[in-house]
Amino acid sequence: MKFIATLTALLAALISPLTVFADTADSVVSSETPFVLIARLHALPNEADAVLLLSKAADKAVKASEPGMLLHTFDQDPSDPLGFVWTEVYANSAALIFHLENPPLQKYLADVSPLLDSFTVELYGEVSAEAINMLRSTGTPTTHFQSKFGYVRDLTP
To answer: How far apart are CA 139 and CA 36, in angstroms?
Structure first.
């Protein structure tokens, strides 16, 4: 009887909302689960302060208008005062599409781009082809690191 209880618990864990499985034996997350975006910016000489001011305003606007943005931080490279990194966690691919279409983001990109000598994006996790194509259509150099296995925890109470 203990074996059946253990097997039942294991099966329940495998089909729980904590992990979404693909067609393979390895677990992966789907395009409907959170993923990470890293945007690397490098300011032109003497433009770091302006980049910081514009980025702070963009952060406030994104927080107020994008419930699908789960984490949004702007960090400075410790070895290069002109280097910055946006770390963003999206609830799902639809949240990234919303972000790309969000007027405050579009204004930020228009204002900050002339102050940068480079801007690249890295995506980590399962992201829909539509979201990836939309991001790439902006002309932003984008690399997608597709998940081979892993899980996303359900942290709802």
So the answer is: 20
Q: Model confidence over 118-135: pLDDT tens digits?
A: 999 999 999 999 999 999
d(CA 17, CA 5): 20
pTM: 0.80
Q: What pLDDT sits at residue 132?
A: 96
Is domain 19-145 classified as CATH 3.40.190.290? no
pLDDT above 90 as % of the chain: 73
Say whether pLDDT at 13 is over 70: no
Radius of gyration of the chain (CA): 19
Query: What single DSSP character describes residue 140?
Result: -
Q: What angle do CA 114, 123, 33 make, to 5 degrees?
A: 130
Helix, strand, coil percent values for the chain (each to nearest 5): 40, 25, 35
Q: Which residues contact 90 (CB under 8 A, 6 or more apart)?
A: 34, 35, 36, 37, 68, 69, 70, 96, 99
Q: Where are the beta strands (DSSP E) in 35-150?
A: 35-43, 69-76, 83-90, 116-124, 142-145
